[in-house]
Design goal:
about 140 residues; alpha+beta; 8-stranded mixed beta sheet; 3 helices; globular
Length: about 140
């Protein structure tokens, strides 16, 4: 029996590559048998077995997921126009727990100063997804 309870956190879904207002916070929860992405109202955006996901990390730290024929670009930080995470997302994130920090969870000085550690957060999510069975693409 696995003791892994999973990992949960709030990242930003880039619904548009060009419009920062369409970069919205999503609550991502990864468990051994499920990847669940929920929007600000906690409605399901994506729920799938991690084995059915392909993942790629861009040079700028965007985690690109492909699942169910759709593409999801996730970033560790929103744009200046992005809405803040909802109170419901924050409560759900605290309730779900964030699990242990992964090996890639701490970023370098430049990432911390210029990007708030966003690239390191996405490297951590990428490593966790691959460990859960997602395909690297």
């Amino acid at each position: 029996m696995s003791t892994d309870t999973g990992h949960s956190g709030i990242v930003y879904w880039r619904r548009s590559l060009w419009n920062g207002a369409h970069c919205e916070p999503v609550l991502v929860t990864l468990r051994p048998d499920s990847l669940h992405v929920r929007d600000r109202s906690l409605s399901t955006v994506l729920q799938v077995d991690p084995h059915a996901v392909s993942a790629r990390l861009s040079r700028l730290g965007t985690l690109v997921l492909k699942a169910d024929g759709r593409r999801y670009a996730l970033a560790g930080r929103g744009a200046s126009l992005s809405p803040a995470p909802s109170a419901e997302q924050q409560r759900a994130s605290e309730h779900a727990g964030s699990g242990s920090r992964g090996p890639a969870a701490s970023g370098g000085v430049v990432d911390q100063l210029l990007n708030g550690g966003a690239a390191a957060r996405m490297r951590d999510w990428y490593a966790r997804l691959i460990a859960a069975g997602a395909r690297a693409s």
